[in-house]
Amino acid sequence: MSRPGDSKPLIAKTFERAWSSFALLMTAVGWSVGAGNYWRFSWRAANYGGGSFLLSYLIWLIIVAFPLSVAEYAIGKLGRGGPIHGPYNLAERHKKWAAFGGMWMAWADFMIMCYYWVVTGWIFYYMLHAIAGTFFTPGFDASAFWSEFGFTPASLGVGAFMMFLSIIVTALGIKGIGQVARFMFPLLFIFTVGLAIFTVTLPGAEKGLEFYMVPRLEALGDPSTWMQSLSQVIWSIGIAWGFFICAGAWMRRNDDPTLTAFGNVVNDSAVAWMAGTAIIPLIFAISATPFEDIKQAGTGLAFVVLPQLFRKMGAAGHVYAVFFFIAFWFAAFTSLITIHEVALRPLKDFGLKTWQAATITGILAFFCGIPTALSGDWLDYYDTVWGVVGLSLGLVFIALITSYFTDSAKVRRGLADMDVKPFIKLGSWWDIMLKVNIVVPILFFAWWIVYGEWIRGWGAGLHTYYTYPGMIILIIGGFIMYFIVAKSIEKQVGKTG
Amino acid sequence: MVWVVFFIIAWLFVVASFYTWYKAVENEKKIREIEKR
């Protein structure tokens, strides 16, 4: 059977890896689950509508997350290549734009790496303090502990160490950490179930649970709720970062992308939802002014709340905190390595050695990320431009590549070319969802901007003074990248004939 | 109300997650059988 991407590949590469379906699922989920599930989910959910955020999150899972995760795996599996080569090989028309779409994802991935090392550093610092027992000393003040560390030179130093470790691991191609992470994910999952159960049994937590779980109409009418939950879905699951293109390229013929994509969506969302259940209701259980506390904690919400949660557990909390933070750090660090591997992949594909690509991207990400290590506003800005706008555009590219640059029915047939029955049968509904996803992120983005700027007042929804220059850089950088990618492809096609 | 929503979501996410773990193991068994043939 002819599969899309069979004709004229840019570089005919076989990435196929000898792993079991379970190992593939655990690795893919291990990539998805990281700092985003605890740090970003609780921060965004608590600040953007609680139950309304959760409801819009669930809707995005169905409309965006599953169809586009499958599409991203399809690009890698059928295109047989990384973020640039996979889309180029799969597309039947506008091949250079398809390659640019992949490059866009790798670029967004790189820009998110610029602040991901900062957050990984925070988790590492908290892990060391969990081991040392700092959270359990008498008179420990979690808010003061966070404000004395977060966004200070100490936080920059610890983050720099994480970036250094990431360069070493990716440059040397150390595989052992990924294998350890495969066992760590189920552990983290079970620890998080335990934390969520503990929180909901605390007196006073029910109020918080109500805020977190019951949608309010007025928040559903606010585009920020929808845009932030959309960005959280793609940020946390890892869609449009280029991860799934790489994983798709590593799949064996009988590996089922619908099972892996569904696994990514439900496992990642389960951890994020349980982390939210552990963190948000706890604030209501321990504070008389929960909304003020949420606002004050800002980006560092999870880091202010988690130590207090372990303290509440009494003597067992110390042991629990140690194991939890070790598993959490592994999850975040393996995600950092994966982000780094995707960011360096285009440089590697265009001829650089692994250690060169790892060092260049690592050092650049460190310098670009220094402001985010020292200022919460800068981190919020990076996260808004890249985490919200950059990734949303990546979604549009995935939908375009699999439904407009090539025929989605052909992609479906290519994915069905297996000896095992697919977990979820893709039908014409999938084709429709792909087409819907070409316009949906753009419409919501437009609503968000118009509402935030015109209706609420200039700068209400965004950090105007620096978000707009960031978006302009994003657009100009995009065009520069397009020409670089197009030229490089012309050269390679020339070489391969 | 809140507890109903809580248990529905818990069931959806947690049970579905464990089910994907089980299906991945089952899938691998089938793939190995096919490869043996």
Can you put this structure into words, describing what you see?
By secondary structure, chain A is mostly helical. Chain A has a single domain, classed as Amino acid/polyamine transporter I (Up-down Bundle). Chain A has 21 helices and no strands. The longest helix of chain A has 38 residues. With 37 residues, chain B is an all-alpha fold. Chain B has one domain. Chain B starts with a helix and ends with a helix. The chains are: A mainly alpha (497), B mainly alpha (37). The interface between A and B is medium-sized, with 33 and 20 residues.
Brief write-up:
The complex is a heterodimer of chains A (497) and B (37). Chain A is mainly alpha-helical.
Query: Largest sheet of chain B, described in full?
Result: none
Helix fraction of chain B, binned, reads: over 70%
- Biggest interface pair, residues each? A-B, 33 and 20 residues
Radius of gyration from the alpha-carbon trace of chain A, in angstroms: 22 Å
Total strand segments of chain A: 0
Helix content of chain A: over 70%
Q: Which architecture of chain A per CATH?
A: Up-down Bundle
What brief labels describe this structure?
heterodimer, A: 497 residues, mainly alpha, Amino acid/polyamine transporter I, 79% helix, B: 37 residues, 1 helix, rod-shaped
List the helices and strands and how they pair.
The complex is a heterodimer of chains A (497) and B (37).
Chain A: H1 21-32, H2 35-47, H3 51-79, H4 85-90, H5 95-132, H6 142-149, H7 153-172, H8 176-200, H9 205-213, H10 217-220, H11 223-237, H12 243-250, H13 257-286, H14 290-297, H15 301-312, H16 315-349, H17 354-374, H18 376-403, H19 408-416, H20 428-455, H21 464-496
Helix pairs in contact in A: 1-8, 1-13, 2-11, 2-13, 3-9, 3-11, 3-12, 3-13, 3-18, 3-20, 5-7, 5-16, 5-17, 5-18, 5-21, 6-15, 7-16, 7-17, 8-13, 8-16, 9-13, 11-18, 11-20, 13-15, 15-16, 16-17, 17-18, 18-20, 18-21
Chain B: H1 2-36
